[in-house]
Amino acid sequence: MQRFLLALLAFSIGLLSHGQAARLVFSSAGTAVGQHPYVVFNPDANIATNPGTYLVIDNSATTGITQLVTQNPPIIKSETEQNKIRWATGATIGTYVIPFSTGGWPTDAAIPLTVQKTSAGTGAGSIIFSTYNSLGKTTGAPTASGWNNDNYRPSDVTHMHDEPTGLTNNSGNAVDRFWIIDAGEGSYAYGTKPAVNITFGLDPRETQLNGIPGNDPLLDANAGYLVAQRFNSGTNQWYDIAPLGAQAGNTVTGVIPPGSGDFFRSWTLSNSLLPLPITLVAWDGQCEGKVVVLKWTTASEQDNHYFTIEKSRDANDWSAIGTVPGAGNSSSMISYTFTDDGVQGLAYYRLRQTDINGTTTVSNTIAAGCGAENGTAIVNAWDDGDYLNLVVSSTLDAVYDLILMDPQGKVMTTRASQVINTGSTTLRVDKRGVATGIYMVQLFNSTNMMSRRVHLD
Question: Is the pTM of this model over 0.70?
Fold first, then answer.
């Protein structure tokens, strides 16, 4: 593993051995900035492409990092995803505090991260920690709240949208910071991740535009509505479980993933009244006899008034064919059905969910029908920066080859044997190195061919 120099600034940091493994001890009595020791990671222009800088606490005791005196920040500045603390927490049960501080502001603030292990886990692994905001990073055009989390998201996060096929950037409903809490990194991973109870420290300026409350006053830390969300990298969802914890001053406390399988690495804080919006757990349609039965399931609901079922023949022009009442507020799985008896071959369907306040969110598109010889279509495509994402809806399982061509027919990339499942399938095509422009993507096999024009940034 490649490791890089840590710059140690302003006084010394003691590594003390008290009959146990060494500890990182902050012992200065100074309370003002510049009067106590702190750790800052050495800048590295290639930090995004190397394995990262590690400060290793090879001591499972909760005193592995110790502050002997309550001090003003800074203490430990991470401020990129790859500037990591690896704490070999092993099988120890206890409360671990990482004294992070913000970076990039004229004056920095303490944002301690507290992780209470309530079970040992298996495999005697380590937990990896880092945290960072947008300051000093290329973030592109800001949102209404002043930052664009979508342009500096963690490496395993694919979007800040309502779902992988959504188009709305919800950075305005999330704070300007990500946290990495990873119990599954490489050779340091736990076999079964421990149960944890997390408390996030918060700098109120990271809920505001340049330190001033932005267009969304409910995101302002002073409003008290912040909760924690983690990104499920297996399903590409923020909202497969309800947001966790509750705000108490400049902290969000009581963040308890329901199980070890829900303990993912990338976290942020969002507005509980407007969280990263609801994502459907399931949404599909099947021909049953002479009708199409549409089925969907929600993981949780907040102020959900009703669903409108919309239908199209070409996936462009839509009309409403019915409504189904929502559950209002729920934290459990709820399943819904709707029957379309006006079936004439293949059609496209989507859900429009309406909140009590009138806000609407549109689902991904699916294809379904009765008597359709070919029920497969590319229903959505978008560029997320590194990858071209294609959503393919199908009434049958099939395998297709994929090619991406420029306007002159030159093949830019190919992908063989892409599996398309019944329902909705998302394909991700690496487009790094492909110039900005209009391209044609094709899916084809021995019986069918479909294509779509796409714009790559």
Answer: no
